[in-house]
Design brief:
With about 350 residues, this protein is an alpha/beta fold. The chain folds into two domains: about 190 residues, Glycogen Phosphorylase B (Rossmann fold); about 150 residues, 3-Layer(aba) Sandwich (Rossmann fold), CATH 3.40.50. Helices cover about 45% and strands about 15% of the residues. A seven-stranded parallel beta sheet has the order 3-2-1-4-5-6-7, sandwiched between helices. Helix 13 links the parallel strand 11 and strand 12. The protein is globular.
């Protein structure tokens, strides 16, 4: 069996790395399985792509479609055109997509139209928020997927309600957690640690990237102001996109405790998360990592596609009203935050299960 593994954006790299490892191991054990790594180029910044490949031990892609930049429609069309040309030169037995980025949706559509079976790793997750491009990507991808590899029973139920039969649903766990557990011993202290005199459990990690939170200057200003006002004397480490940094500077926020830094590599960022007092974010993936590491997590969104991080893990959904930040931080500092647990099958073996299923399909 030959598989095209599709990767295009930062979250994809963490999800495909253990799948590559599992395929290589199965092949060395005599399994009839191989892969071609297709990098769509959706994220083309070095910190978003090359550094992640290097840190996670991902080999150089067999092909790079170079589809970065432009609007979502321009990016989607570039990925589809590039992947179609690639398939015309030779079709795999299976196209495996991961997550919910533009590359996931675009390549799954092309593969299906070229009569190539599609497998979706992390299939079935839903936020219910149609304003999120990721939600549209998920629904389109899942509507044409042949094999669903899921992270939770909630995802399984979402698929069943959509009419997917049980024999196409495989509950395997979370490949992103495979990567986290494998590389946890290698987490690397970033230079900012010593530069700012950070100490374990002595700071908060903040990440914001969703347009609803960062594009409206007044909203972004109020959120950061609330965090700074109610985080006592703790530094707030904020790896920030340059576009967001511009809005923050325009807002006039000045505070020595707000440490705005460049985007960090995987090993450096998760070092900070593991050592932090808490995480405040609007990222879905970070809520999963914080849950496994037992770090209190606050999500500044009105919905989540990862409800298990709330019902089982350390995450709480605060919504997008900045006024919700104060009571949440008061609860945290009062020592009343839930301890949380790790969801079922988030044990570092999801990729092994996926490859075993494919070999026996």
């Amino acid at each position: 069996m030959q598989i095209d593994l599709i990767a295009g954006a930062r979250p994809n790299f963490m999800k495909i790395s253990p799948i590559i490892d599992a395929i290589v191991k199965a092949r060395s054990d005599g399994g009839n399985i191989s892969y071609r790594l297709v990098h769509t180029g959706q994220h083309y910044d070095a910190n978003m792509s090359h550094n992640f490949f290097k840190q996670l031990g991902i080999p150089e892609p067999d092909i790079n479609l170079g589809a970065g930049g432009g609007t979502q429609a321009e990016q989607t069309s570039a990925i589809m055109l590039g992947y179609e040309k690639y398939l015309m030169q030779g079709k795999p037995d299976l196209c495996m997509v991961v997550g919910d980025v533009t590359s996931t949706m675009a390549c799954s559509v092309v593969a299906k139209k070229m009569h190539v079976r599609v497998a979706h790793v992390e299939g079935g997750i839903r936020s219910g928020d149609w304003l999120m491009p990721e939600e549209i990507n998920r629904i389109v991808t899942d509507s044409i997927t042949d094999y669903f590899f899921t992270t939770s029973e909630v995802a399984n139920e979402n698929l069943r309600r959509a009419g997917v039969s049980d024999e196409r649903i495989y509950f395997v766990g979370n490949t992103m957690i495979d990567t986290l557990l494998k590389h946890r011993p290698r987490f690397a202290r970033p230079s900012l640690w010593d530069e700012h005199g950070l100490e374990p459990s002595g700071f908060i990690v903040l990440t914001l990237h969703r347009p609803a939170n960062v594009d409206e200057q007044s909203k972004l200003t109020e959120m950061i102001s609330q965090i700074l006002a109610h985080s006592r004397d703790l530094p707030v480490v904020f790896p920030v996109h340059p576009r967001t940094a511009v809005n923050i500077k325009k807002s006039g926020i000045r505070n020595d405790r707000l440490l705005m830094v460049e985007p960090l590599g995987y090993l450096e960022f998760n070092y900070l998360v593991e050592k932090s007092f808490a995480v405040i974010t609007d990222s879905g993936g970070i809520t999963e990592e914080a849950t496994v590491m037992g770090i209190p997590c606050m999500t500044l969104r009105d919905s989540t596609e990862r409800p298990e991080t709330i019902t089982i893990g350390t995450n709480e959904l605060l919504g997008t009203d900045p006024r919700a930040i104060k009571p949440a931080l008061e609860k945290l500092f009062a020592g009343k935050w839930k301890r949380g647990d790790i969801p079922e099958l988030w044990d570092g073996k999801a990729a092994e299960r996926i490859v075993e299923i494919l070999l026996n399909a």
